[in-house]
Structures are given as structure tokens and as C-alpha cells.
Amino acid sequence: TGADDEEYAATSETNPDVCTLYISADEFVCTQRNTTRGRVLTIARESGICGVTAVSSAPFGAQERTVHGLMGVLHRYQEAFLVVIVNARKVATIAGGRIFEISRVELLPFTLYAKKGQKSRNDGVAKEIKAIESYLSNEGPLLLPDYDLTRSWLSPCSVSEMTHESSVDKFFFNKELSLDFLGLGQLGTAWLVPTIQGFVASETLAAPPFDVPQVPLGTTFTLTSITRSSRTRLWPVGAAGLSEEGDAAEYAEMEVLVEFANIRAAYLGARGSCPVVWQRPAKSGLECHVGSHEASTAALSLHARSLIASHGHVLFLSLLQGTGEERALKGAFDKAFEEARKRMGDDGRKVRTLSGSVTRALLPGGVSQMLTESSKALVPLCSIRRTAPSGRSGVAVEEQTQRIMLRIHCASSDQADGVLLAIARDAIENLL
User: Fold this and answer.
1) Is-cis flag, bond preceding 141, omega within 30?
2) Phi-psi region of 342 (alpha: psi -120 to 50; beta: other; left: phi over 0)
3) Which residues of 361-382 are buried (b: 16+ CB within 10 A; e: fewer)?
4) What is the pLDDT of residues 226-243, one digit of tens each?
5) Which residues have CB under 8 Å from 311's CB, separation 6+?
6) Which three-class secondary structure state does DSSP give residue 302?
7) Which DSSP string do the residues of 223-241 spell out, in sequence order?
8) Which residue in 158, 165, 163 sits closest to 144, CA to CA?
9) Where are the beta strands (DSSP E) in 10-68?
10) What is the rounded distance in angstroms from the CA atom of residue 424 to the CA atom of residue 432?
11) Reduced to 3 states, what is the DSSP secondary structure of residue 430?
């Protein structure tokens, strides 16, 4: 991640986007990241009631801490814990927006009667809370202080503009933790820190990462990849296919952005488990168990409609082969897709399918050639924003929006990620 790879303790000297948290016997009081707005969030420790009031003096005898923000409130049995982001590591900067990987989280108990050295009166809960702290600190959910990272960078939304409905639910990692804040309406968004479970890599390059038109000498290129993993269909461990609600296992969206000169180009794609109802074999070498045609058709219809609602048009790219263990899945998907498309009415015209091989998809221009041959291309496959040169107000002089999203499924997620990167390269090169 280059020069952006820095550890940030939550201090006003290193990161202006921090909060002051006051901890007293009666309540938690947290300022906004920009304290000039003059409001504080109060959380009563006994009742758990949240409120927003005008800034006043710090609670008498309160402990004062500077933190990155609040992930929310965790409720376990009869106890509650405030989830506080203590440390974070900056991993990328996109168009001036800094992305942080959370590196330390603390859970502060509401109760004042916890055992010494523990965070709960119950030994089992105390052990569980310690494990949750370790997981959140080591697995590193990602946050962007100014923008909602659950949404694509193609249509950014500032945190101050967020509403209960504006974030993308399946990527909102701490959605349930944030319900107490969301219940305050627009006032509560000042303390809302939407996080994603995913990965970000960013590099600043002296040479273009793609074939691009001639650019001035000394132009630098910033290449960023963001992967957002869905928080749905995570249980049971090793889940595959679709749930009855249409949620896909191993579902993730990958966004690739290139910034240079006055140009910002981006590609958004998705991958996930084969979108039918099926289960992995109990032992290696056995065939997977595929659910009924009716169950797969109903689940695939829901899955496709959810993608249409987010992205408009969707192309399902199947890289499964008609041999070996993949034969049953490929046949079930092909059959369910045709039936689901019929049942979806007008929405059925917004989804298409394309088959191919992983080997061919990874070749330069492979997917573009497959699209051309099938006459199923809906262009453009990516977005671009070209602004006036520096000094000329920076307004957009050319803007083009991605109109179709490819949703890939194949034998492994690693293969699908490689295909998504290959497609992003082709799409951005063709556009530029």
C-alpha cells in the first residue's frame, strides 16, 4: 500500500477526524469529529437511551479519551457494550478521501459492576467480549471518515448525507451495532461510522498501469482496488449457493479505480458462489448436492432483482465447465436462469447470461471478445469522469456511467477475482 501505510493513534495531531469521548459513572458523552458543530451524543449507561444535545461542559469526574469513532452498541444477553475505534491504519487515499483499516477496538461495558479486570459479571460473556475485541482489532474492517464506504465510489455519499436507507445493507458491516444511532434519524449520522469487511490496495505509479493515450511527462497514476465482502450468507461456515432469500455465499464486489491528470476511471464487478440452491459435498471427491429446480429459480429471481435494484443491468458470467463436479451446477444454473428470467417480467430484460472458460476470460481482451461474439454487450462497462484542467473550476466536462455489472461465478473465488481484474483492465483501457 506504499506511503499511505501508516499507523494512526486517535490524536488530534495525526488525524483531525476524531472524537472526544467522556466516560462518567452515569453516561458516555461523545463529541462529533468536527466539534465546531456544537452537539454531543449522550448514552445513559443504566438505560442505554441515546440522545443528542448542545455542547456543554464535560461531565463531572469523567475520564476523557480521544477516539476515531464509535462502531455502535453491542447487546449481549442483559448487558451492553459501547464499541469504540481506538486505532486505525491509513491504507489508501482516493480523490482526497482517506481509507483506514481499523487496528484496535475496545468494548466499554455499560455496567459498573463488572469483575475487576473483566468487562462483564458473567465469565462466559467476558470471554466472548474479549474474543470480539480481538477479532475486530485483527481482522481489520475498513472505514472512510468522510464517505460511506458501503457504496460504490461511482456514486459516493458523504457520511453527513447518510440516511437509514442510503447505505448498502449487505456491505454495512456494523449495521446492527449502529441501530441505536440510526434511531436518532439525521442527527445520529454525525456519529455513524459505516465500515466494510474487505480489502483495499492502492499504489501511486510513475508509469501508466494500462495502455492510455499520451500524457504529459511526469504524470503520476494512482491505481486502487477495493473489495467489499457481503455480511449475508456467512452461516453456516462453508455455506454455498443461494439462501431462500436470494443471498449468495462468498459474494463480494470489486471496484478498480485509476486516477491521473484530470481523469478518474472506475470499474465495478461482482463475484459469488454459483447462484442456485446447493450444498458442498461432505467429502472431497463427492458430487455436490443441488436443490430443487423450483427452489433455485425462486432464489435466483430474488438475487437478480436485488442486483438490478443496485446496478440497473446485470450480466451473469458463468465460467463453470460442463464436466466433472461442475456439470451439475452448470446445468442447474442454466435451467434456473431461463425460468427466472421469464418470471421476472420487465426485469427479465435487464439480466443476461454468458458462458465461457476461466482460461479464456483471463486472456487480454478475453471477456470483451466473448461479449462481442455473443452480441450481448451493453456498453460502457466502466465509468469515467474527465474534469477541466486545474485552474478552470474543476467541473466535469465529460462523464460516462457504467451501465452494466458483470456478476461472475466459477469454481473458486480466487479465480473469479483474477477474472474481475482482467475485465477491469480491458474495460478501462477500451474507455481511455
Assistant:
1) no
2) alpha
3) bbeeebbbebbeeeeebbebbb
4) 999 999 987 777 789 999
5) 268, 404, 405
6) helix
7) EEEEEEE-SSS--STT--S
8) 158
9) 19-23, 27-31, 39-44, 50-54, 63-67
10) 12
11) helix
CA-CA distance, 350 to 85, in Å (whole number)?
Answer: 41
Q: Which of 63, 200, 83 is nearest to 140 (CA)?
A: 200
pLDDT at 391 over 70: no
Question: Which residue shows C-alpha cell 458442498?
Answer: 280
pLDDT in tens, 58-87: 788 889 998 888 999 999 888 999 999 998
Residue at grid coordinates 481509507: 99
Residue partners of 21: CB distance under 8 A and separation at least 6: 28, 29, 30, 31, 64, 65, 66, 67, 70, 84
Which residue blocks in 209-325 are alpha helix, DSSP H? 293-311
In angstroms, the CA 395 to CA 388 distance is: 6
Q: pLDDT (tens digit, 9 = 90+) per residue, 280-328?
A: 877 766 678 899 999 999 999 999 999 999 888 899 999 888 787 788 8
SS percent in the chain: helix, strand, coil, step 5: 30, 35, 40
* The three grid cell numbers given for residue 165, joined into one nine-digit string: 436507507
178 pLDDT more than 60? yes
Which residues are CB-neighbours of 112 under 8 A, at least 6 positions away? 25, 45
Q: Comparing C-alpha atoms, which of 28, 33, 157 is closest to residue 83?
A: 28
Q: Which amino acid, one-letter code, is at 233?
A: R
Beta bridge pairs of residue 94: 97
Look at 48 and 96; give whichever has higher pLDDT.
48
In the numeric block, which cell numbers belong to residue 100?
Answer: 483506514
pTM: 0.85
